[in-house]
Amino acid sequence: MKNNNNMTCDLETGVCGTTGEDEIEVIDFNQPSKKIDLYYVTDPICSHCWALEPTLRRFMKQYGQYFNFKTVMGGLLEK
Question: Are 72 and 44 in contact (CB under 8 A)?
């Protein structure tokens, strides 16, 4: 098996690609990131919602760059 290491990278732009005879195939790793809108509906007097808070904070710390996080407050009381 023949190993061709014809990889070229531009350190300023971050664009990498393989070189061919007359052309370069460009692989751009700087594509704009797309974020997902995540709605978290919670109730301040719900004990289950408070129990979820540490897990939710750890999730947002690890994966928060992928989400637009929005909190929606609900309630068990009528008003």
Answer: no
